Amino acid sequence: MLRRPAVLATVLLVAFLIAVGMWPAAIAPVTLAASGLASVLAVVPGPVYLLAGVIAWLKYRPQHQPKPATT
Fold first, then answer.
1. CB atoms within 10 A of CB 31
2. DSSP secondary-structure letter at 3?
3. How many C-beta atoms lie closer than 10 Å to residue 8's C-beta?
4. How far apart are CA 31 and CA 24, in angstroms?
5. 2: Cβ–Cβ under 8 A, 6 or more apart, which residues?
């Protein structure tokens, strides 16, 4: 199931922190970073994100590829 050592180590660390009761203290920096990111994203209005997405799509949209000539 878990074949990658990093995933297994992370799962074991989380299980240990939950068992010891230190999970709230260990997750606090992650929670603070997520709330800070959410507040920064909330400052910019939604239509600006929509406009940026449309501009990025127009710039990087896939171009029509002609079919190769067959003999």
1. 10
2. -
3. 12
4. 10
5. 8, 11
CA end-to-end span of the chain:
50
Task: Give the count of beta carbons closer than 10 Å to the beta carbon of residue 13.
Answer: 11
Q: How far apart, in whole angstroms, are the C-alpha atoms of residue 56 and residue 63?
A: 14
Q: How far, in Å, CA of 13 to CA of 25, rounded?
A: 14
Q: What is the pLDDT of residues 4-48, one digit of tens each?
A: 888 889 889 888 888 888 878 888 999 999 999 999 999 999 999
In degrees, rounded to 5, the angle at the alpha carbon of residue 43 between the alpha carbons of residues 28 and 26 is: 5
Q: Which residue has the tokens 């990025």?
A: 56
